[in-house]
């Protein structure tokens, strides 16, 4: 029997005040670009890959955030494809690839993004 | 019950669709097709050479046949019918019994028996394989000939054009093109159009021999003349594929075609024939719409329902090589049975002929070439014997053609008027679907299939939807999105009354949830239109559309372009040099825009504040190319230099551009000033445009270039500069107050109740009594103007927002790539 165990490593991204209210920023973690969003109205944080899969543009952090039926989403500034910040699926186009979402936690004023590492034990 | 269909063309496919849609799942349905692929759209075959793939043309994919429990054998033609054992045999050796057999074998191109017609380089035009062969052969062809000037022949000529064969000829035996559909005068207009496209038309020519040793080198005619060409496409008509029926002993017509009755039964009542292979009442129908009708009749008969095919109207509307050609009802009745009204404009290539009864009360039919916009209405008028206006020539000139007239016309149609002839959908069914709750064209199309085939009836279906909803007193609330239950105009009034200043305040007061990419920019734009405060302030930065948020236009690859304002297009050499120096320093691609400005592309986000710091230092300010705002006021050089100029158009353009710079609106605004009637600044294509006259200025409004060009309309003439500005103030503020989001002035006017007369009354005659208010609102915005880039450059806090990585602000996006082109750079192509 194999057990897949996931361990999350938390990386410090920036301070809460670095992120515009109800907007996003791009965080560099090692060689990765991660988009970090702050929903000030709900006091919630989300993180996804920065690349929009449609035209492979590093743009989602500059996209407009919002909700559809209360589900948080981001719209890519290039062609307005929208992605769920909960599960990363493309809301506006079923045929579009999903994006990776990452967990976020805030300790004091510091924002951390969690990167999962899958460890397989047999 | 077991039904076998022979043939998987458009009509064979339609039979399957009809049978399955008639709530029938128990019937076993097996289809044999000769071609290697499932049924495809032969009507739009030529688009295969124009970029469409074979898959694009499929009527349904294999999954559809599976989902509908249809067994499809492609590439396996039926070779024999054993009526005795009620069995079909195929080329592959399959044998299958049937209860009912449907022959949808279609037709083959008729190839006239001209000597040499089988030489290499002669093709027919029917299947995707034919097109592949033509494409391969035409690659080296210098000249091509199409034999046959009918519908299909002209399609084939379009194919030669698409394949860039340098010279092509259409050869027609009779005295005119499309002899079944149009008359000599119409043909002459069409020939003219074809000539301008490089297609020569030879009428009254009878081919005598295909020239050439083994390969085609030309075509000789019985009159002794000849034409050189290295490819020939034959489309001289069709002959029904009736060989299988002949072998099975079914009755054929004297000149071919499988004889059928009104239920599409052949001489064997268990065998049906539909489409181009069927001969009904001495007619072979070479169009798809009657074939679809036959398919529906055959399906109904097999399922025991009463339905009959009683002939079909051959009215047709097509776009042939970019030219509208339509023919409806009786295009050429005998002279003493009708009066014809003819309109002809050789210059624009428009020809219209209407045949009316001698007493002038009914329309019998007609021909439309070059402009077939009225086809649907004229066809319905003919079919339903609707009374004509007192002066029937109004039908030709389209004297009354605004939206109201259209909807009045469609409501006048009887309920059984067939609106979509491809799918034979009546007006009653369309209106019924709307009454049942549907509101959009797409929904109605899905429910009724109206407009799903050729799409020609789409405008009429839309008019019917609007008219039905209006008649039922249904009001589509024009709300912004799920977060705000108000229209843009209502939002503007509410925000103004409460003097709200930020998106958060607005959504707290009048909305719910968090907002989205639809409502945020609308609210942000309203706030800017009302207060003209810095758009990045008060947390409104993240409510701006991306370009407004970074005060620059995002381009391929994620870099930005920068457009400094150059009012009126006038610039000093010193400032030109600065633009050049900045472009060199920041490695920017430079291009002159259509609005007499200079666009600098390829700027990294973090370079933007530095670029602007230098531009502002040299006296530039933001050009608002990124905003739904005033863009540019283009000008001609005017009376200071031009020998024709009446007034100084450049000075006036600068004055106007500086007055309205930074003005945020529902959409972008463009303007221009011309110094005389020659109109070099193209003012009549702008949202507002000004042209000098002997006595002052003429002010035009609501013009548009772009995808739907529209000439601006005259609002006031011979006015002085002061009055002109006053009217523009009122016009722009009225537009800003009342337009829907992302609606240009032209579209706004088209939707405005009362149109130009109403607008003229509001702006010039102050019919609403709001002129002073509008002027004051504009003056307030003018007084509060500041260059937003200057504010950003001077604010360390705002400058911080212009970096790619929040945790590595000095680094640029490493994924940005450029390529070299003509001594400059360009964005790397995206995937």
Number of strands of chain A: 12
Q: In terms of structural class, how would the helical and strand content of chain B be classed?
A: alpha/beta
Structural class of chain A: mainly beta
Q: What is the average per-residue confidence, as pLDDT of chain A, rounded to a whole number?
A: 88
CATH level-four homologous superfamily name of the domain at 2-108 and 240-302 in chain B: FAD/NAD(P)-binding domain
% residues in beta strands of chain A: over 45%
Range of helix content of chain A: under 10%
According to CATH, the fold-level topology of the domain at 2-108 and 240-302 in chain B is FAD/NAD(P)-binding domain
Count every helix of chain A, treating DSSP H or I runs of 4 or more residues as helices.
Answer: 0
GO biological process, one term (chain A): nitrate assimilation
InterPro entries (chain A): NasD-like (IPR052034), Rieske-like_NirD (IPR012748), Rieske_2Fe-2S (IPR017941), Rieske_2Fe-2S_sf (IPR036922)
Organism (chain A): Chitinophaga jiangningensis
Domain Rieske (chain A): 11-113
Characterization of the model:
The complex is a heterodimer of chains A (122) and B (831). Chain A is mainly β. Chain A has a single domain (3-121), classed as 3-layer Sandwich (Rieske Iron-sulfur Protein). Chain A is built from no helices and twelve strands. Chain A has strands at 3-15, 23-29, 32-39, 44-49, 51-52, 57-58, 64-68, 71-75, 82-84, 101-102, 104-107, 110-121. In chain A, the strands form four sheets. A four-stranded antiparallel β-sheet of chain A has the order 2-3-4-10, with no helix packed on it. In chain A, strands 1-12-11 form a three-stranded antiparallel β-sheet, with no helix packed on it. A three-stranded antiparallel β-sheet of chain A has the order 7-8-9, with no helix packed on it. Chain A is globular and about 35 Å long. The model of chain A has no long low-confidence stretch (mean pLDDT 88). The longest helix of chain B has 18 residues, at 721-738. In chain B, the strands form eleven sheets. A five-stranded parallel β-sheet of chain B has the order 3-2-1-7-19. Chain B is of the alpha/beta class. Among the domains of chain B are: 2-108 and 240-302, FAD/NAD(P)-binding domain; 111-236, 3-Layer(bba) Sandwich (FAD/NAD(P)-binding domain), CATH 3.50.50.60; 488-544, no CATH class; 630-783, Sulfite Reductase Hemoprotein, domain 1 (2-Layer Sandwich), CATH 3.30.413.10. Helices cover 31% and strands 20% of the residues of chain B. The radius of gyration of chain B is 33 Å and the shape is elongated. The A-B interface holds A 13-14, 18-23, 25-28, 33, 36, 39-42, 55-59, 62-70, 72-73, 75, 77-78, 80, 82 and B 482-483, 503-504, 507, 513-517, 519-521, 539, 541-543, 545-547, 549-550, 554, 557-558, 801, 804-808, 811, 813, 815-816, 830-831. Chain B: Residues 315-382 form the NADH-rubredoxin oxidoreductase C-terminal domain. Chain B: Pathway: Nitrogen metabolism; nitrate reduction (assimilation). Chain B: Residues 555-617 form the Nitrite/Sulfite reductase ferredoxin-like domain.
């Amino acid at each position: 029997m194999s057990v897949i165990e996931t361990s999350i490593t938390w990386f410090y991204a920036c301070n809460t005040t670095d992120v515009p209210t109800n907007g996003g920023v791009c965080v560099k973690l090692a060689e990765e670009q991660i988009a970090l969003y702050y929903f000030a109205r709900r006091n919630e944080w989300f993180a996804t890959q920065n690349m929009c899969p449609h035209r492979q543009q590093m743009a989602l952090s500059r996209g407009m955030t919002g909700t559809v039926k209360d589900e948080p989403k981001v719209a890519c500034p290039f062609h307005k494809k929208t992605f769920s910040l909960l599960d990363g699926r493309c809301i506006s186009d079923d045929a579009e690839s999903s994006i990776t979402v990452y967990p976020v936690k805030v300790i004091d004023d510091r924002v951390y993004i969690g990167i999962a590492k899958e460890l397989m034990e047999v | 019950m077991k039904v076998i269909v022979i043939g998987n063309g458009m009509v064979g496919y339609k039979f399957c669709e009809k049978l399955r849609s008639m709530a029938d799942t128990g019937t076993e349905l097996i289809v044999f097709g000769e071609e290697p692929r499932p049924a495809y759209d032969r009507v739009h075959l030529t688009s295969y050479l124009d970029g469409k793939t074979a898959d694009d043309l499929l009527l349904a994919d294999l999954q559809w046949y599976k989902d509908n429990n249809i067994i499809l054998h492609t590439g396996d033609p039926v070779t024999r019918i054993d009526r005795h054992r009620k069995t079909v045999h195929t080329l592959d050796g399959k044998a299958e019994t049937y209860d009912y057999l449907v022959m949808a074998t279609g037709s083959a191109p008729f190839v006239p028996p001209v000597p040499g017609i089988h030489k290499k380089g002669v093709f027919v035009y029917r299947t995707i394989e034919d097109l592949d062969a033509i494409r391969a052969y035409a690659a080296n062809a210098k000249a091509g000939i199409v034999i046959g000037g009918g519908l299909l022949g002209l399609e084939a000529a379009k194919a030669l054009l698409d394949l860039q064969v340098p010279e092509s000829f259409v050869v027609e035996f009779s005295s005119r093109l499309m002899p079944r559909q149009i008359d000599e005068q119409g043909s002459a207009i069409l020939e003219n159009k074809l000539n301008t496209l490089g297609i020569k038309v030879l009428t009254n020519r009878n081919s005598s021999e295909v020239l050439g040793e083994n390969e085609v080198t030309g075509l000789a005619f019985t009159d002794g003349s000849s034409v050189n060409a290295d490819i020939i496409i034959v489309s001289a008509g069709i002959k029904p594929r009736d060989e299988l029926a002949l072998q099975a002993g079914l009755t054929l017509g004297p000149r071919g075609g499988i004889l059928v009755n009104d239920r599409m039964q052949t001489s064997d009542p268990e065998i049906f024939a539909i489409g181009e292979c069927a001969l009904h009442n001495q007619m072979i129908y070479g169009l798809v719409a009657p074939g679809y009708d036959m398919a529906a009749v055959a399906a109904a008969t097999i399922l025991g329902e009463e339905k009959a095919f009683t002939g079909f109207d051959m009215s047709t509307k097509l776009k042939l090589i970019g030219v509208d050609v339509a023919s409806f009802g009786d295009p050429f009745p005998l002279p003493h049975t009708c009066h014809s009204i003819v309109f002809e404009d050789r210059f624009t290539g428009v020809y219209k002929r209407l045949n009316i009864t001698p007493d002038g009360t009914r329309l019998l039919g007609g021909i439309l070439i070059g402009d077939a916009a009225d086809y649907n209405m004229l066809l319905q008028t003919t079919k339903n014997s609707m009374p004509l206006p007192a002066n029937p020539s109004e039908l030709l000139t389209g004297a009354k053609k605004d939206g109201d007239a259209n909807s009045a016309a469609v409501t006048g149609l009887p309920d059984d008027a067939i609106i979509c002839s491809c799918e034979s959908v009546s007006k009653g069914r369309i209106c019924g679907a709307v009454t049942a709750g549907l509101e959009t064209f797409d929904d109605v199309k899905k429910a009724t299939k109206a407009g799903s085939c050729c799409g020609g009836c789409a405008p009429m279906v839309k008019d019917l939807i609007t008219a039905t909803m209006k008649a039922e007193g249904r009001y589509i609330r024009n709300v912004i999105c799920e977060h705000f239950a108000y229209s843009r105009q209502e939002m503007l009034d509410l925000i103004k009354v409460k003097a709200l200043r930020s998106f958060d305040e607005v959504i707290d007061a009048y909305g719910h949830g968090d907002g989205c990419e639809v409502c945020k920019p609308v609210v942000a734009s309203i706030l800017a239109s009302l207060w003209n405060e810095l758009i990045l302030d008060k947390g409104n930065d993240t409510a701006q559309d991306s370009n407004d948020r970074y005060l620059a236009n995002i381009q391929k690859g994620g870099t930005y372009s920068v457009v400094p304002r150059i009012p009126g297009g006038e610039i000093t050499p010193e400032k030109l040099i600065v633009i050049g120096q900045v472009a060199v320093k920041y490695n920017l691609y430079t291009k002159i825009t259509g609005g007499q400005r200079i666009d600098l592309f390829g700027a990294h986000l973090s370079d933007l504040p530095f670029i602007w710091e230098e531009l502002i230092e040299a006296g530039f300010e933001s050009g608002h190319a990124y905003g739904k705002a005033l863009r540019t006021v283009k000008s001609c050089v005017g009376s200071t230099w031009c020998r024709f100029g009446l007034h100084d158009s450049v000075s006036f353009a600068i004055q106007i551009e500086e007055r309205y710079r930074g003005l945020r609106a529902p959409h972008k605004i463009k303007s221009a000033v011309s110094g005389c009637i020659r109109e070099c600044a193209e003012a009549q294509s702008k949202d507002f445009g000004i042209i000098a006259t002997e006595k002052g200025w003429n002010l035009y409004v609501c013009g548009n270039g772009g995808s739907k060009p529209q000439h601006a309309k005259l609002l006031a003439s011979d006015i002085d500069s002061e009055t002109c500005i006053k009217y523009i103030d009122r016009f722009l503020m009225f537009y800003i107050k009342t337009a829907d989001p992302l609606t240009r002035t032209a579209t706004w006017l088209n939707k405005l109740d009362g149109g130009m007369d109403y607008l003229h009354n509001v702006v010039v005659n102050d019919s609403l009594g709001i002129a002073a208010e509008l002027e004051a609102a504009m003056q307030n915005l003018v007084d509060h103007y500041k260059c937003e880039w200057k504010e950003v450059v001077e604010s360390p806090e705002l400058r911080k927002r212009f970096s790619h990585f929040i945790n590595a602000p000095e680094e640029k996006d490493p994924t940005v790539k450029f390529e070299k082109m003509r001594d400059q750079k360009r964005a790397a192509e995206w995937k």
